[in-house]
Amino acid sequence: MAHMAEWGYPQSLEGGAKALGADPKDGAGAALIRWFCQPDRSGKRRLPEDHPEKWAQFVEYCRQDVATMRDMRRRLLRRHGQDWPTDHERRVWIADQKVNDLGIRVDLDMAASAVEAASENLAADKAEAKAITGVENPGSTAQLLSWFGGLLPDLKAETVRQALTRDDLTADQRRVLELRQSMALTAHKKFQTALDAANTDERLRGGFRFFGAHTGRWAGRGLQLQNLPRAGFSSEAAQDAAILDLTLGLGADPHTLKSLVRPMLVGPFTVCDYSAIEARVVAWLAGEEWALEAFANGRDIYVETANRMGGGMGRKEGKVAVLALGYNGGVGSLQAMGGAALGDETVLQRIVDQWRAANRNIVRLWGRVERAFYYGGQAGEHIRVEASGSDRLVRLPSGRAVVYHQVRASRDGRLSFQDPRQRWRTDTYGGRLVENITQAISRDILCYAMQTLRTMDIVAHVHDELIIECDERVSLVAVCEQMARTPPWADGLLLRADGFECQFYQKD
């Protein structure tokens, strides 16, 4: 299925067969798998000799799966000419299997204590909410809304958050909303997931799905290591105290439990990540010389951006601008990235204009990529778009391609493509395409680092970060230097990796 994913097709047998027009998968198979692979109510297995007709159907189902897979491969070869577009991707897939097979160690005692504490917290919150409101089920949205008497349109997270900023709430109303927030926290579910999924050696395996995103980035499975809440402790001592209290059965409030999800993963770890990887890649793609010079001389890109923008801009404005505007974002992007605190829409529009004036080559790159996407051709020095009928293959410096199927342009020039993994078409434009390309290249850089550090025990990776299980005798500086090696296909790209050592997984 890895072959399918790289060409932009669904990784399921059913979805892949449909996308390629192959022989359809037998839909009755799931019931037959359950019949023979799961015990009956008495705990006994159903044996083939006891159910010969169903067993014959099961054998035929398995045969059909193999036939469908072969048909898919033939069609894939006929359509694209090869299984694996690059040998590089095959090596990446092998590295991915090693990471998934090794897994990451979990403190199961801590996880069990967290699940118990979460259950106690939920019971206490419901009891208090019931005592205040008098409703039968405080977890019921309908019952709580009725108690509020039309004060709120719904009890969605954002609605509750906004309501708590109001000054016309009674003390009881405010407390019920706070309890609602507390009951809605789901971090404790990650502890239960870890308990359910961990092996007998206390390791959690199979946490990453190869080519889970259109750009080639991984997707998470199970615990979702790429989407863990940040720890909110003021110091390591405070974290250690919270862990000790929890494991001793003293409990923890919901917010503390949320902060303990990452420390549930135990090392010792060396954690290394790239510094401003996307800003470096997009500047390299666009040939934005002033930014490349800043990176080469080790200067703060956010300060340099602010200085380049002028108009009294400081590091804060520069950072928000770099994070929000590199992919043709506007005022809305600034607001979504926390820029609302910088001023009203007039101020934000001025920041947009100043950033674009300071990064003219990046702005030009958006247009070049979009034009190449229409007709095929070169989009700057490092990117080439190959047109194959209505499909577009954006060829990356690493040699692999990001594939866009059934590309169309509307009468007003708007671009869209069909993702075979979705039922709907997806709109795109120059800035979004540059974002896809930048993230795809950043992923390939991480893959190169995984190859460079293949002798080490990489237990997880999160976007631009590697988590390595090793002791203090391993040189942190050496690991960061190895990770920051520029791939041979990215001449001129300046990388930097920073890291730290820890006993529990955390963010620096």
Overall description:
The two termini are 36 Å apart. Strand 9 (401-409) and strand 10 form a beta hairpin. The chain is of the alpha+beta class and 508 residues long. Among the domains are: 2-83, no CATH class; 107-197 and 228-264, no CATH class; 289-358; 445-504, no CATH class. It has a 6-stranded antiparallel sheet, covered by helices on one side. The chain has a 4-stranded antiparallel sheet with strand order 12-13-5-14. It is globular, with a radius of gyration of 26 Å. 50% of the residues lie in helices and 13% in strands.
In short:
By secondary structure, the chain is α+β, with helices and mostly antiparallel strands. The protein contains 21 helices and 14 strands.
Percent of sequence in beta strands:
5-15%
Provide the spatial order of strands within the biggest beta sheet.
6-7-8-9-10-11
Distance between the first and last residues' Cα: 36 Å
Biggest sheet character = 6 strands, antiparallel
What would the average pLDDT be, to the nearest integer?
A: 89
SS summary, helix count: 21
| Rg calc | 26 Å
Measured as a percent range, the helix fraction is 40-55%
Number of strands: 14
Q: Structural class from helices and strands?
A: alpha+beta
Rough outline: globular
Low-confidence stretches: none
